[in-house]
Amino acid sequence: MDTGGDDSRQHVSDEVDRALRADVRLLGALLGRVLTEAGGESLLADVERLRTLVIAAYERDSEASIEDAEALVESFSHERAEQIARAFTCYFHLSNLAEEHHRVRVLRARAAAGPVADRADSLPAALERLTEELGAEETADRLQQLRFHPVFTAHPTEARRRAVASAIRRISELLELREAAEPGSITLVENERRLLEEIDVLWRTSPLRMTRPTPLDEVRTAMSIFDQTLFQVVPRVYRLLDDWLLGQDAGRRPAEAPAFLRLGSWIGADRDGNPFVTAAVTKSAAAIASEHVLLGLEHAASRIGRTLTLDEEDTPPTDALLALAAEQERLAGHITSQIGKRAPNEPHRRVLMVVAARIAATRLDEAPLAYGRPDELLADLAVLQDSLRAGGADRSANGELQNLIWQVQTFGFHLAELEVRQHSKVHRQALEEVRAGGELGEMTQEVLEVYRTIAFLQDRYGVNAARRYIVSFTQSSADLATVYALAEAALGSAEAAPVLDAIPLFETFDDLQAAPRILAEMIELEPVKARLAATGRKLEVMLGYSDSSKDVGPVSATLALYAAQSRIAEWAKVNDITLTLFHGRGGALGRGGGPANEAVLAQPPGSVDGRFKLTEQGEVIFAQYGDKTIAARHIEQMAAATLLASSPANEESNRAAAEAFAGVAATMDEASRLRFFELVKAEGFAQWFAQVTPMEEVGLLALGSRPARRGLSVESLEDLRAIPWVFAWTQARINLTGWFGLGTALAAVGDEAVLQDAYARWPLFTSMIDNVEMSLAKTDGRIAERYLALGDRDDLASLVLEEMELTREWVQRTSGHREILEDRPVLKRAVRLRSPYVDALSLLQLRALRSVRETGSTDPADAPHRLLLLAVNGVAAGLQNTG
């Protein structure tokens, strides 16, 4: 598949970075060879015919051209249509990895070009700005309190199979090796042969999962991120910060950079609407995570221990180290004896090697050698570090050993803090049954077993392994009280119950409005009072972006979430609460997605305060954390934004803008909500939505273990999960969940000067407009019209298309841009280069959808359904976001 030879696109291609263009051309050409070998010259010819037509249609905006492309798609046999869908999907996978590879290349080049503090969004730059505003002492205090807390979720938004992702990763590694090879060398020839082999594997690997992954499959997939990147990346980020803080003294003086990252996980613990997540699954999920982190710590301790060959004559041990060595000998004389024979005069090495053995015993649960808590391990490492410093070996004390300490502080023995989530309705039903007496139903027994599992996990891995309990659809303080009442019932008494922090999740518009009142009642509950006393009055509150957007539309949801955060932050300040707001953001714009670091800086005053927690899910996990260089950059950007969000200047800017544009916000809120309701509350809307998008068919994709809805049919949207709601509109190239109602809202304000002033001065509004620009860039009116024509409601189709054009018009008038994404040329070029190829897959999907609608087939194994699912998979890869 040749991507660089079409003259009609040369004006765009010429502007793309030469190295990236070369990578895409190489991979496209190799894919073309694979297609020819697999399907003959005719397959590649058909791919090229369709490619040429969709490019012509996109660039000339010619209806005849898009109709020609449609006619070609209709002429293909089912087998050929599937092959072409797979070919375009493979191309997108290769393009995506080339772009990721180039992103890494650019990041490395920037890092080599100058000091890290020169980057505006770096941690050193953030600290310099804070120091200018607050002084060195206050800045140092804020740094020590910094927390960035990503929470990985198993929400099914990753459309790729694990086997496909693995093949892509192998190709990416080969592309990286190729860069180091000499032109014309045998190494380069061998690299090309290996690339062809792996691209052939990618082509021959079915892109569709035949069965849904189990929750434990999802856990193991997430573990690959920890093993491949996070375990090594986290201390690297801390080290870069520490090197900047200490300058020439880095490595000689004790580290000043704090272990500011904490990792959370819902994978294997989030049971809201997922009947496959049981107490047994949660226990296994924790065991798998602990196995991975303890193996990592064990190997790191062994590796560092082997290098600590410091003779006791030059580096004498402290009395504390000798006492520790004696205690180790008492615990495991046979191990210390064996190690002592290999290192008789190297006490620091001996101690750390026994520490490694104790970590292994912890993993295998072998008492008495096993550590009981991570704090015990940290205490041993502190003794070792102090002894090295006392003996003059500062660099050994503050080097790799410090990295190990950071890893223990960050990951503990549990790796990620498991967070149980359950719907408030389930709790209410379970408690009613418990209090009624008699035999308990299966659901209630399972609810109670979850609490016993939490108690077990805390005893096995430490309290922080699983203490957060999130209550979906919290509507009153009674929903939080129920959590503690059920824990007491499960364990027999309040004293025997595990340590729990019940976290309200406010999701709907009404619940967001009621949040301060519910929280005021919540802190009067006796179990909550006890936890506030134990934690120094720390409290966590979660906000749901997905359901609030589905509830009142994206504009009103954004404004309601901002207002709710402001009210909750003010309430916390009045009540002396140290608040952490937990943002349930998704990858797609309709689920609170978009550049997260910009979103952090746009938060209301007092709502961040050096702590930021958010969900990371699906393709976002792999995009942000799958590569070491990108993961390090993402973590640094988020930490820097978290620090700066609470700077006096940033808070004052947000406060002043929110006050200045309060009237604009009120006008937009009312107008956008009415427009949104005009669509979604129209009679028959739910059935029409299912007709004009592949919403029902999305449920056939084995994306994740959780069902697409909580039990209701397409007759109602009330219980449809936000992910398929967003996914379906994205697949139809409409992206309605990201922008619908904004055009009406901006037109209701009507004053361009006011809107442009708001765009310049109001960070929340700026972020909203910029995110909608990205959403509109991936929206295609020509393709959207074809999806909307699948339904029999011209009134609803017209409403959607009119709002799309109105939004596009007013977004450009507000931003002052002549074209969408005018000020983001790299993203604009990427979208323009991809869009025609996505069009090809959309036309294939439309062909399949029409066939399914005409025949009424519900068999996912028939040819139209199979083509449809292949095209869904390809569009997801092309747009690089699903739900």
Describe this structure in words.
The chain has 883 residues and is mostly helical. Among the domains are: 223-262 and 290-411, de novo design (two linked rop proteins), CATH 1.20.1440.90; 417-589, no CATH class; 658-823, no CATH class. The chain is built from 39 helices and 8 strands. An 8-stranded parallel beta barrel has the order 1-2-3-4-5-6-7-8, surrounded by 8 helices.
What distinguishing features does this structure have?
5% strand; de novo design (two linked rop proteins); 883 residues; globular
Unreliable stretches (pLDDT < 50, length at least 5) are 3-16, 587-594, 710-714
Largest sheet: 8 strands, parallel, barrel
Any idea what the radius of gyration is? 28 Å
Number of helices: 39
Strand order in the largest sheet? 1-2-3-4-5-6-7-8
The separation of the N and C termini measures 29 Å
Number of strands: 8
Work out the helicity level.
Answer: 55-70%
Taken as a percent bin, the fraction of beta residues is: 5-15%
Sum up the overall morphology in one term.
Answer: globular
Structural class: mainly alpha
